[in-house]
Design a protein that fits this description.
Structural class: alpha+beta
Radius of gyration: 14 Å
Number of helices: 2
Shape: globular
Largest sheet: 5 strands, antiparallel
Helix content: 25-40%
Strand content: 25-35%
Oligomer: single chain
Number of domains: 1
Strand order of the largest sheet: 1-2-3-4-5
Length: about 110
Amino acid sequence: MDQATARQRWMQQHMTSWLRLAATLRSEGWEAQVTCEAAPVQVEGRLPSGERFYFRARHSDVSLGIGGEDPADIPEWEESESHEEASWLPATDGEAIIRRLALRYAGG
Protein backbone atom coordinates (compact mmCIF):
# COMPACT_ATOMS: atom_id res chain seq x y z
CA MET A 1 0.00 0.00 0.00
CA ASP A 2 1.43 3.39 -0.94
CA GLN A 3 1.67 6.28 1.49
CA ALA A 4 -1.27 8.20 0.00
CA THR A 5 -3.56 5.17 0.28
CA ALA A 6 -2.43 4.51 3.84
CA ARG A 7 -3.10 8.14 4.79
CA GLN A 8 -6.54 8.02 3.17
CA ARG A 9 -7.41 4.81 5.00
CA TRP A 10 -6.23 6.29 8.31
CA MET A 11 -8.36 9.41 7.79
CA GLN A 12 -11.41 7.27 6.97
CA GLN A 13 -10.94 5.24 10.16
CA HIS A 14 -10.32 8.41 12.18
CA MET A 15 -13.49 10.05 10.86
CA THR A 16 -15.56 6.89 11.37
CA SER A 17 -14.42 6.58 14.98
CA TRP A 18 -15.48 10.18 15.73
CA LEU A 19 -18.86 9.65 14.08
CA ARG A 20 -19.30 6.47 16.13
CA LEU A 21 -18.50 8.39 19.32
CA ALA A 22 -21.09 11.05 18.45
CA ALA A 23 -23.67 8.28 17.91
CA THR A 24 -22.77 6.75 21.29
CA LEU A 25 -23.19 10.11 23.02
CA ARG A 26 -26.54 10.64 21.28
CA SER A 27 -27.71 7.23 22.52
CA GLU A 28 -26.98 8.52 26.05
CA GLY A 29 -29.09 11.66 25.64
CA TRP A 30 -26.49 14.08 24.27
CA GLU A 31 -27.13 16.05 21.12
CA ALA A 32 -23.71 15.67 19.52
CA GLN A 33 -22.50 16.47 16.04
CA VAL A 34 -18.93 16.20 14.78
CA THR A 35 -18.33 19.45 12.93
CA CYS A 36 -14.66 18.74 12.15
CA GLU A 37 -12.78 15.49 12.70
CA ALA A 38 -9.22 16.81 12.50
CA ALA A 39 -7.07 19.93 12.79
CA PRO A 40 -9.02 20.82 14.93
CA VAL A 41 -11.36 18.10 16.12
CA GLN A 42 -14.71 19.72 16.99
CA VAL A 43 -17.93 18.34 18.46
CA GLU A 44 -20.91 20.54 19.22
CA GLY A 45 -24.40 20.13 20.63
CA ARG A 46 -26.19 19.86 23.94
CA LEU A 47 -25.48 17.89 27.10
CA PRO A 48 -28.18 15.51 28.35
CA SER A 49 -29.07 18.27 30.85
CA GLY A 50 -29.76 20.68 27.97
CA GLU A 51 -26.78 23.06 28.10
CA ARG A 52 -25.05 23.81 24.81
CA PHE A 53 -21.45 22.63 24.52
CA TYR A 54 -18.44 22.99 22.26
CA PHE A 55 -15.57 20.48 22.40
CA ARG A 56 -12.35 21.27 20.55
CA ALA A 57 -8.95 19.62 20.28
CA ARG A 58 -6.27 21.75 18.65
CA HIS A 59 -2.48 21.85 18.81
CA SER A 60 -1.83 20.49 22.33
CA ASP A 61 -5.06 21.64 24.01
CA VAL A 62 -8.43 19.90 24.38
CA SER A 63 -11.25 22.00 25.78
CA LEU A 64 -14.92 21.79 26.62
CA GLY A 65 -16.98 24.98 26.77
CA ILE A 66 -20.50 24.85 28.18
CA GLY A 67 -23.33 27.37 28.27
CA GLY A 68 -23.62 30.94 27.16
CA GLU A 69 -24.98 32.23 23.86
CA ASP A 70 -22.11 30.62 21.96
CA PRO A 71 -19.99 28.14 23.93
CA ALA A 72 -17.47 28.12 21.06
CA ASP A 73 -16.82 31.82 21.64
CA ILE A 74 -17.58 32.82 25.22
CA PRO A 75 -18.80 29.86 27.29
CA GLU A 76 -20.14 30.25 30.81
CA TRP A 77 -17.85 27.40 31.89
CA GLU A 78 -14.71 26.06 30.24
CA GLU A 79 -11.93 23.68 31.14
CA SER A 80 -9.14 22.12 29.16
CA GLU A 81 -6.50 19.43 29.28
CA SER A 82 -3.31 19.11 27.34
CA HIS A 83 -2.83 16.29 24.87
CA GLU A 84 0.10 15.89 22.54
CA GLU A 85 -1.01 16.29 18.92
CA ALA A 86 -4.58 17.18 19.93
CA SER A 87 -5.36 18.35 16.39
CA TRP A 88 -5.43 14.67 15.39
CA LEU A 89 -6.96 13.42 18.66
CA PRO A 90 -8.11 9.79 18.46
CA ALA A 91 -11.78 9.34 19.33
CA THR A 92 -10.94 6.92 22.16
CA ASP A 93 -8.84 9.62 23.86
CA GLY A 94 -11.45 12.24 23.01
CA GLU A 95 -14.22 10.20 24.61
CA ALA A 96 -12.31 9.91 27.88
CA ILE A 97 -11.56 13.64 27.91
CA ILE A 98 -15.05 14.88 26.99
CA ARG A 99 -16.58 12.63 29.65
CA ARG A 100 -14.03 13.69 32.28
CA LEU A 101 -14.56 17.41 31.57
CA ALA A 102 -18.36 17.01 31.51
CA LEU A 103 -18.16 15.30 34.92
CA ARG A 104 -16.09 18.21 36.25
CA TYR A 105 -18.76 20.60 35.00
CA ALA A 106 -21.56 18.55 36.58
CA GLY A 107 -19.63 18.42 39.85
CA GLY A 108 -19.62 22.20 39.92
